[in-house]
Amino acid sequence: MSLRDLLRFAIQALMGHRLRSGLSLLGMGVGVAAVIMLTALGEGARGYVENQFANLGSSLLIVVPGKTETTGALPGMGGAPNDLTLDDFEAIVRRIRQVERAAPIAMATTTTSHGELRRQVAVIGTTKEFLEVRNLSLGRGVFLPEGDIRRGASVAVIGERVARELFPGQNPVGKVVRIDQWRMRVIGVLTSRGTQLGVDVDELVVVPVATAMRIFNRSSLFRILIEARAQVDLDTTAKSVVALLSERHGEEDVTVITQDSVVSSLGSILDTLTLVLAAIASISLGVAGIGIMNVMLVSVSERTSEVGLLKALGVSHQQIVAAFLAEATLLSLAGGLLGLTVGFFGVGVVVGIYPDLPAHPPGWAVAAALAVALVVGMVFGVLPARRAARLDPIAALARR
Amino acid sequence: MIGLENVCRSFAVGDSEVRALVDVNEQIENGEHVAIMGPSGSGKSTLLNILGCLDQPTSGTYLLDGREVSGLDEAELTEVRRNRIGFVFQFFHLVSRLTALENVELPMVFAGTAPPERRARALKAIEHVGLNDRADHRPDQLSGGERQRVALARATVMGPGLLLADEPTGNLDSKSGTQVLDLLDRLNENGLTLVVVTHDPAVARRADRALVMTDGRIVRRLRGKELESIQGIGPGIAPGTTDVTSVST
Q1: What is the pLDDT of residues A121-133, one digit of tens each?
Q2: Which residues 6+ apart lie within 8 Å of B88 measured at CB?
Q3: Binary contact (B95, A306; C-beta < 8 A)
């Protein structure tokens, strides 16, 4: 008997019970679709987080005041740490050899206005290195000028949306913007970049760090961003920074975060999440397999006399097993393909609604879902197929 | 040629043993037309099942064309059923989802016959039973007589030497029954050995000879003019006897 004939016989048998076949196929489809969609969401979450960090550059160190371990609180909260100061920043740049460039950051939210138009924006005080450390670029004009970091010029670089809303239809470069009570000349506009690490670059106003400290009436820094030289070990660099600042402050009261450590720890959490989601979804594949077995058992008992006939016609034990196994396998395969279609469609819908989520099912999940569907169908098809082949032909034929 | 020597078949039913066939000895020559008669439970169906290699004797030997069949394993029996034996049943046993033509093709599908040859042979067999215009109909679109003729085409399409019919007209009106019996006679005239189990004297009278069974033994052998004397041996003739076919299930 050729494979083609075997498949044709199986398909004809399945088509004889469309509703029943369709429902068990649907069960398998739901299982496969669930695996695909859930793993896609898991991957999407991971991709989203990684994208957030990837924009920063991979050799970035962030110095945060406060010590996570000692206070048990978030960096910068409680424990009354010493402030990060511009002196600290200068010490890092001067004394740590592995530093390629660094940017101090002072940050606060305040009102920015132009004429009658005003809005609340985050104002960042920094230096010209900020542009490169954060991988930003300018749409128009120039970025902050070089010079003594303690002498702040009255200039500002504004985010793309701030430019659009405060200067609708105009070129803001050269115009004057009011930040809090201070008048600043706009010298550049940042290229749109979206949200990075919870800060919307498009809604940012960047001024020289000394200017920002003057506006906020504050002498402490919010963060220090450090870009390490290529090929230096980030962990050793981080340790040197901590050692230097501990020496200056008399205690270890800063935390240095590396992008890699954050990404890899988040990545492994999200990988686990994806696996857990896949495992949960695979349960439905097992359930679908039991559904197929159920349908096949019903089919065998319904077709007892057909099996008896086949035996009388000289159809072998193996051929009867093969025929029923082919049915179960076709059911699970068709269910798998249906699930694949539905799953990819579902992922497409999710991506359509949340374009920031790079949700796509990982290849291993697609392959595993199909393979599991197929194997489950075959495994759960064996019992009914063997039951059919073992039927006593005389008893089977005695039934009408 | 069929040779049965001391064939016994018994079934264990609970603690007791039911002896369905007791020391059956019989020779059936090639091309013969033999009827098997007897009340329900007389063992005629069991005998037919053994002749069809669906069942094995508990003791004794069954020779088919000089080959001892009683010792063959399941795979060899399958082979014998496929190529040497055709079956016709009271309830037709057509596969309801397949057309008449596909039903006739079925044995060849599993025997691995190539599709073009399969189709040609099936069409020829369908034509032989006079149903060319019904080839694409499904069983539920056919009358009982037409269904039995499709079953007959299926039983003969592999070219067996022996055709076993279990009450072939038991479920048909007399007109379609006659058509089926005429077809069987014609096949027999062409050299097919025919063994028919029946209650119906009219069916038995068409045979060369008849074996009458009671309690698992062949009690009478009738031939020629003796067949005319056969009276109806209905299912209810031996009240209280166990129907072996249903016990064996």
Answers
A1: 999 999 999 988 8
A2: B148, B151, B152, B155, B163, B164, B165, B166, B168
A3: yes
CB of A13 within 8 Å of a chain B CB? The answer is yes
DSSP structural state of residue A50: H
- Compare CB distances from B75 to A9, A309, A316 and report the shortest one's residue: A316
- Same-domain check for residues A289 and A369: yes
Q: How far apart are CA A324 and CA A383, in angstroms?
A: 10
| Least confident segment among A75-89, A327-341, A369-383 | A75-89
Q: Do B97 and A1 touch (CB under 8 A)?
A: no
- Domains, chain B, in order of start with CATH, read 2-94+160-247 (3.40.50.300)
Tokens standing for residue B207: 């045979």
| Residue A239 within a domain | yes
Q: Which residues of A touch B106 (CB under 8 A)?
A: 310, 313
Q: What is the pLDDT of residues A360-370, one digit of tens each?
A: 888 888 888 88
Q: Which residues of A touch B112 (CB under 8 A)?
A: 1-2, 5
**Smallest CA–CA separation between B243 and chain A, in Å?**
12
Looking at the structure, tell me whether residues A239 and A183 fall in a common domain: yes
- CB B106 to CB A15 under 8 A? no
**How many domains are there within chain A?**
2
Out of A203, A229, A252, a domain closes at: A252
DSSP letters of A68-124? Answer: HHHHSS-TTSSS-PPPB-HHHHHHHHHH-TTEEEEEEEEEEEEEEEETTEEEEEEEE
Which of B95, B109, B249 minimises the CB distance to A5? B109
Which residues in A lie closer than 8 A to residue B82 (C-beta atoms)?
Answer: 313-315
Contact status of A247 with chain B (Cβ, < 8 Å): no
Confidence check on the interface: ipTM exceeds 0.95, yes or no:
no
CB contact under 8 A, A2 and B112: yes
pLDDT tens for each residue of A233-284? 888 888 899 899 888 888 888 888 887 777 777 788 888 888 888 888 888 8
